[in-house]
Automatic annotation (TrEMBL), chain A:
It comes from the Bacteria. The keyword Electron transport applies. It holds the Pfam family ETF. Residues 26-161 form the Electron transfer flavoprotein alpha/beta-subunit N-terminal domain. InterPro entries: ETF_a/b_N, Rossmann-like_a/b/a_fold. Residues 199-236 are annotated as: Disordered. Keywords: Electron transport, Transport. This is Electron transfer flavoprotein beta subunit. The keyword Transport applies.
From TrEMBL, chain B:
This is Fe-S oxidoreductase. Keywords: 4Fe-4S, Iron, Iron-sulfur, Membrane, Metal-binding, Oxidoreductase, Transmembrane, Transmembrane helix. The keyword Metal-binding applies. It comes from Methylobacterium pseudosasicola. Residues 236-266, 308-339 form the 4Fe-4S ferredoxin-type domain. PROSITE patterns: 4FE4S_FER_1, 4FE4S_FER_2. One of its GO terms (cellular component) is plasma membrane. The keyword Membrane applies. The chain crosses the membrane at residues 71-94, 100-119, 140-158.
From TrEMBL, chain C:
Keywords: Electron transport, Transport. This is Electron transfer flavoprotein alpha subunit apoprotein. GO terms for molecular function: electron transfer activity; flavin adenine dinucleotide binding. It comes from Methylobacterium pseudosasicola. It comes from the Bacteria. GO terms for biological process: fatty acid beta-oxidation using acyl-CoA dehydrogenase. Belongs to the ETF alpha-subunit/FixB family. Residues 95-263 form the Electron transfer flavoprotein alpha/beta-subunit N-terminal domain. The keyword ATP-binding does not apply. The lineage of its organism: Bacteria, Pseudomonadati, Pseudomonadota, Alphaproteobacteria, Hyphomicrobiales. Residues 1-53 are annotated as: Disordered. Residues 1-31, 39-49 have a biased composition (Basic and acidic residues). PANTHER family: ELECTRON TRANSFER FLAVOPROTEIN ALPHA, ELECTRON TRANSFER FLAVOPROTEIN SUBUNIT ALPHA, MITOCHONDRIAL.
Length: 261, 633, 410
């Protein structure tokens, strides 16, 4: 099986250093268990994805593009030439606009189906098919069997990436894609940028338009379902058990009792 | 008379034969050492200093066990003297001089006495830390050689060499003597040959010059292979040093990971390295790695050493806290920590197989310059409300305060606040790097990620080059060791002082006037990276004495203190064991009945504070001193 | 900014008392203001409630703050009696919200998206909810119109659904379309965006009628733009709609049959099976309900049976893991796993600081411990000071009885 991994120029959220986005590193790990894999990057500098060479990728193709160019047509052209069975990408970028739209645009351009948020991949029983496990959150999964080629994005719950190995990074190869890739200018979104300001999360249970006192109550857990703060000192064990089960059912983590027939 | 004449030739001839056999066996062994890579060795210098290294440095370590020291002096001295004297008797004037044989008999007699001392350690029951196997027959061989030699020499001295006793005694001596010589290849006597050569060609000659030569050697990142994967990746004199191991087990007694039941035994580790390059090595007969792992793994100079199925399990490798307790205790001057780091370097740099939990911190260190991935500017957040000037304002200061990773920790922030207030109190002109301070890279280096360490070292050296300061003061012994001993290889030579040393200076200069706190009972826990790595054990104690606390010492203290478990990336690797190292250390502290365990290191603070149900309080020296200074107002 | 603008006219309309003569409007001012607010106190009634019966002179028990005899205001009864539904007859424009409808119901996040749509719609616009299948509660969540998408809610065909949504939107020509930024909603929004060749403003964390705000570059900056056609709304970013219910009138949409892809299905997907999380094997960090044992639990077999019956994920304190009684990967705490569970049931755990760090993210904590002063008891929403060894069999007994199998009680 041949797997292509889309690599983006990530930035570390704290230090701003050029890093390989975590999800793409996880994608490399998924691909390593499947077969021959190759990285693909479209952008001005290949050095920004060199870190991937130390995380289990031996070979990267680099399509040189000007800074402001849209990477999607170039990626689609390279992928059409590579003809992989599976294209992996992170569900979102890291350090850029983080819209998560590029894999969709690439899939649309190639006419491939897209399966989002996978955490595991395995070849299917039938040739040319794949089992892709999608994360549905909280450990639940959806196993999609699909006929390739397919684009899949990787979810953070996928297995952790390989550790960076300097020696492997030294040996990896970045190969420039030859052939004229006409740069298409990317659509410039009309956005105004300013430093990030942390917003308070909505407090659950606080009614909209409520007073400050009510919001405080909700935030400190004095209201709502967790509010009870009930304390039973030396209760009868059976009574305590009833209390616990009732509480668990109120929270909704325990199913209601079956009707006794 | 013929019998006597022949015996005066045959007996010395036996010793010469022993010497020849030993030489053959040693040279067979030397062929194995040559599998290693080249190393530059100052041969003449080493040879010239051999007696001093043996008699002073080795003896200093051996003498910690008085019995072993006496035993070794008697048996080794007697053996050497008796053998040399006998060998010289090949010269006819000596061989025919009867009183000379009295002297020889006396030497053999001493050897015999020493042999019994050796035997007493192993029979009827072997001491726990010693290895069995071939070591168990050592006293038998020694006794045979010594008794046979004594009787033969006595016969030569007082006549009766024609009798039936002479051939019997000679045969006994020959059996023992040749047995000992034969053991030079695989058995206990190897330590004598390899040990002597190891002292000459020691990879860290600085150890014998009275300075702590403890810095890890920088790795050439352009080398074709990084770190050690197979025995042949080690330098030849390292292989030689592992052969010097006499399996005395002092390292396993000192090792905190072994005590905690983590799968590490330094003796077994060294013996596994030996078995790795010596295909016909007899089976290991000492205490195993805790956890009862049975895998043997392939042998040979090109067989992989580390792996779930190889000789050494990765968990063994990552259990080491790099505390150097084993190195400190080793009478053969073996450098266990260098071996561990060399093996780790290959695992990390070439295979990327760090322990799962260590990947995050090392990745963050590489990407952000902090193992927690926190913003560098947040390092000074602990000092909210304190005047903590960044050095970039004036560009110079008398003292550059290196905060280290502990500054991010809430608990350790208290210590640093105390230190900053003490510096203010004493009117010290100090500044911090602030957001320009990156981690020293200590964690990455101990975990084998030399590439990240070197990148951080170069960045920090470049930053420090922009400012003028007289000395660096830090409360973190790990940072101190890295800055003081390991940065010079990257062009950064600084005077680095631990905060306890600076505080002692300030007290002695009268700039800090602490009151006395006689009501406190304190025991001081030495940080490995201060005491063992840098030999600084006195300043913290002097500070404690200056504030008049009631100070008790733990059984293991000073350079022989036990690790808290916080070094070498062990907390992030978190290899499971049966117990926890800090719990053991706090139990030792509890034996002193001290109410306070004084610490001088952020790692120790964090590890010891994390012990559940501890009775004693954990206080840094700076916090105690601040309390005393405030009490003295 | 996220607080909805008050609409006094609508509020008054909601409390208007229907009268027969129609001479002048009458309002019931005693009703609680829609959207919450502090309940109005009635000191006189409270005082009356504190009165102690006695013959001679008035006596009050001031320590008693219990609600007065008669309710201060009879708001729930009145509100349900006269639910006034707000209608928008001819909206100037439509704002479409596309909820996930996981399990056929509006989730809290879905309601927030509807709340966001309400903000963008303002007074002139109308909020239309574009939902698959039936479902209820759209009106109270703020929807003026309901567009029912004829799609199989259980089938997994996101591309096909996106095509049908895009076709519907093309026919509807709304001003804005909002999706929740969830796994499914975010996926759908990006598919629709690519299909409609429209930019998507993803993961909006701030919203006002004039602008949307989203974080970018690892939350180092934020981007602000006027609301475009497509946007997704981050969770817990916008308040739910809290005004009076709206009508959620069914709005039929004529989709041009020739519309590209309106009926297509993704041929490549051969099957899609939902595999629910197995609480016994799900990674601890993802588990929804964790039951953990500490030093106070000595009978671990009972503990394991209880965990299995509760369908919880087993956890343990450091002491048990160190002792080898529980596997290392079950360790909860700073040096083990940091949980994100909805509920944490701590049996016999006192709550060392490192352990509490591991449960800091849990919404609800239930603790059973013998020590009244244990930190875990302090942290818990339901704290039982009792021996966990006694509680566990009691729980098993009760659960066994509920299952109609008294034999399980042993």
């Amino acid at each position: 099986m041949k797997i292509a991994i889309l690599l983006s120029a990530g930035r570390h959220p704290v230090s701003g250093a050029a890093v390989l986005p975590r999800l793409e590193a996880q994608a490399i790990r998924l691909a390593a268990g499947l077969g021959q894999h190759i990285g693909l990057h479209a952008g001005p500098e290949a050095a920004v994805v060199a870190e991937a060479l130390g995380q289990g990728l031996a070979h990267i193709q680099h399509a040189a593009l000007p800074e402001e160019a849209d990477p999607v047509p170039a990626l689609a052209t390279c992928l059409a030439a590579l003809a992989p069975d599976l294209v992996l990408a992170g569900r979102r970028g890291q350090g850029g606009a983080e819209t998560g739209i590029v894999p969709y645009a690439v899939a649309d351009r190639l006419g491939y189906p897209l399966i989002p948020d996978i955490i595991a991949a395995a070849p299917g029983e039938e040739a040319g098919t794949l089992h892709l496990d999608q994360s549905l959150g909280r450990g639940a999964r959806r196993r999609v069997t699909i006929r390739g080629p397919v684009v899949a994005t990787v979810h953070p719950d996928a297995p952790a990436s390989f550790a960076y190995a300097y020696g492997q990074a030294r040996r990896g190869v970045i190969e420039p894609v030859v052939g004229a890739l006409a740069p298409h200018p990317a659509p410039v979104p009309a956005v105004e940028e300013r430093p990030y300001r942390r917003r308070p999360k909505l407090v659950k249970g606080a009614p909209a338009g409520s007073s400050a006192a009510e919001r405080l109550k909700a935030a400190t857990g004095e209201a709502g379902p967790a509010s009870s703060g009930r304390l039973l000192v030396r209760p009868d064990p059976d009574e305590a058990a009833r209390e616990i089960l009732a509480h668990l059912r109120r929270i909704g983590v325990l199913a209601a009792p079956r009707d006794p027939r | 008379m013929t019998g006597l004449a022949s015996l005066t030739t045959v007996f010395p001839g036996l010793v010469w034969a022993m010497a020849a056999l030993a030489l053959v066996q040693a040279s067979r062994r030397a062929a194995l050492w040559r599998l290693g890579t080249a190393a530059s060795v100052a041969w003449l210098d080493g040879l010239a200093k051999l007696p001093r290294r043996y008699l002073v440095d080795v003896h200093h370590v051996v003498a910690r066990d008085a019995y072993a020291s006496r035993m070794h002096a008697v048996v080794a001295g007697g053996l050497l003297a008796a053998s040399v004297l006998t060998a010289l008797a090949i010269l006819p004037p000596l061989g025919g001089f009867r009183p000379y044989w009295v002297l020889v008999a006396a030497a053999f007699g001493v050897t015999a006495a020493g042999s019994l001392l050796v035997g007493a350690r192993r029979y009827p029951e072997k001491q726990k830390r010693l290895s069995a196997g071939r070591f168990q027959i050592l006293p038998v061989l020694l006794v045979a050689y010594a008794v046979g030699g004594t009787v033969t020499a006595l016969l030569l001295a007082f006549g009766g060499a024609d009798g039936l006793l002479a051939p019997l005694a000679l045969a006994l001596a020959a059996a023992g003597g040749l047995g000992l010589a034969f053991e030079v290849r695989h058995g206990p006597m190897r330590h004598a040959a390899a040990g002597a050569l190891h002292l000459v060609a020691h990879p860290r000659p600085g150890r014998f010059e009275g300075r702590p030569d403890t810095a890890l050697q920088a790795l050439d990142l352009d080398a074709p292979r990084l770190g050690s994967e197979v025995p042949a990746d080690f330098a030849w004199n390292r292989l030689l040093s592992y052969d010097a191991c006499v399996s005395c087990g002092r390292c396993e007694v000192a090792c905190p990971a072994f005590a905690a039941g983590q799968p590490l035994n330094p003796k077994r580790l060294i013996q596994d390295l030996v078995a790795g390059f010596s295909p016909s090595e007899p089976a290991y007969a000492g205490a195993p790695y805790p956890g009862g792992r049975a895998a043997e793994g392939a042998r040979g100079p090109l067989a992989r050493l580390i792996g779930p199925d190889a000789r050494i399990h990765p968990d063994t490798l990552w259990s080491c806290t790099t505390c150097r307790a084993c190195v400190e205790e080793c009478p053969m001057m073996i450098e266990h920590v260098d071996a561990v780091v060399a093996l780790r370097r290959h695992q990390t740099l070439e295979r990327g197989s760090l322990p799962e939990k260590a990947v995050g911190p090392v990745t963050d260190l590489r990407q952000t310059g902090d193992p927690g991935g926190r913003p560098l500017a947040a390092r000074t957040d602990f000092a909210a409300g304190l005047d903590l000037p960044p050095i970039s304002v004036r560009g110079e200061a008398a003292v550059l305060l290196w905060l280290g990773e502990g500054a991010y920790d809430l608990r350790y922030g208290r210590t640093l606040r105390a230190l900053v207030r003490l510096l203010r109190e004493a009117g010290v002109d100090f500044a911090v790097l602030g957001p320009e301070e990156r981690d020293t890279g200590d964690l990455a280096r101990r975990l084998g990620d030399e590439a990240t360490f070197q990148a951080l070292a170069r960045a920090n050296v470049a930053t420090l080059a922009r400012y003028r300061f007289e000395r660096i003061v830090t409360a973190d012994p790990h940072a101190l060791h890295t800055l003081r001993n390991e940065y010079p290889a990257f062009g950064g030579c600084y005077t680095v002082v631990h905060h306890t040393a600076l505080l002692l200076d300030l007290i002695r200069a009268g700039r800090l006037k602490p009151g006395r706190l006689p009501d406190l009972s304190v025991t001081y826990h030495d940080p490995c990276y201060l005491a063992r790595y840098n030999g600084e054990t006195e300043a913290p104690r002097a500070v404690l004495d200056a504030i008049g606390v009631n100070r008790a010492e733990m059984t293991r203290s000073g350079r022989r203190a036990m690790c808290c478990g916080g070094g070498g990336g062990a907390p992030v690797s978190d290899v499971p064991g049966e117990r926890r190292i800090p719990d053991l250390r706090m139990a030792q502290a509890a034996e002193t009945d001290a109410g306070i365990v004084a610490v001088a290191c952020p790692s120790c603070t964090a590890m010891l504070e994390g012990v559940p149900d501890r009775k004693a309080e954990i206080r840094d020296i700076a916090e105690l001193l601040l309390q005393a200074v405030e009490a003295g107002r | 900014m996220t607080r909805p603008r008050r609409d006094p006219r609508a509020e008054r309309a909601a409390i208007r008392v229907p009268d027969r003569d129609g001479a002048r409007p009458r309002y019931d001012r005693s009703a609680r203001r829609p959207g919450g607010g502090r309940p109005r106190r009635d000191p006189r009634a409270e005082r009356a409630g504190q009165r102690v019966a006695g013959p001679l002179r008035l006596r009050y028990d001031l320590g008693q703050v219990a609600p007065a005899e008669g309710p201060v205001r009879a708001e729930p009864a009145q509100r349900t009696a006269a639910p006034t539904i707000l209608t928008v007859e001819a909206p100037d424009f439509l704002v479409v919200a596309v909820p996930d409808m996981a399990g056929g119901r509006l989730s809290a996040h879905d309601r927030q998206v509807l709340g966001a749509a309400r903000i963008l719609a303002g007074r002139e616009g109308g909020v239309a909810v574009l939902a698959v299948g039936a479902g209820a509660g759209y009106g109270s969540a703020g929807a003026d119109r309901l567009i029912s998408l004829d799609d199989d809610p259980d089938a997994y065909d996101p591309a096909g659904r996106a095509a049908r949504i895009a076709a519907t939107l093309a026919a509807l020509k709304p001003r804005h379309v909002l999706f929740p930024e969830t796994l499914d909603g975010g996926d759908l929004a990006r598919r629709v965006a690519v299909r409609m060749r429209e930019p998507l403003f993803g993961n909006a964390e701030g919203l006002s009628p004039t602008g949307l705000i989203r974080p970018a570059r690892g939350r180092s900056i934020e981007q602000r733009a006027a609301p475009g056609l497509l946007a997704t709304i981050a969770p817990e970013a916008v308040a739910e709609y809290a005004g009076p219910p709206r009508e959620a009138r069914l709005l039929p949409v004529e989709i041009d049959a020739s519309m590209r892809g309106a009926q297509e299905i993704t041929q490549e997907i051969l099957s899609a099976i939902r595999i629910p999380a197995d609480p016994a094997t799900v990674p601890l960090g993802l588990a929804e309900f964790v039951a953990a044992a500490g030093n106070g639990v000595t009978d671990l077999d009972t503990f394991r049976r209880l965990v299995a019956v509760l369908r919880a994920t087993p956890g343990a304190s450091r002491v048990l893991c160190d002792a080898g009684l529980m596997p290392r990967q079950t360790q909860v705490g700073a040096s083990g796993t940091v949980l994100a569970a909805t509920c944490y049931l701590a049996l016999g755990i006192s709550g060392a600081p490192q352990h509490l760090q591991g449960v800091a993210g849990c919404e609800h904590v239930v603790a059973v411990n013998t020590d009244l002063h244990a930190a875990m008891i302090e942290r818990a929403g339901l704290a039982i000071v009792q021996d966990a060894q006694l509680i566990m069999p009691a729980l098993l007994r009760l659960l066994g009885q509920e299952a109609g199998d008294p034999g399980d009680a042993a």
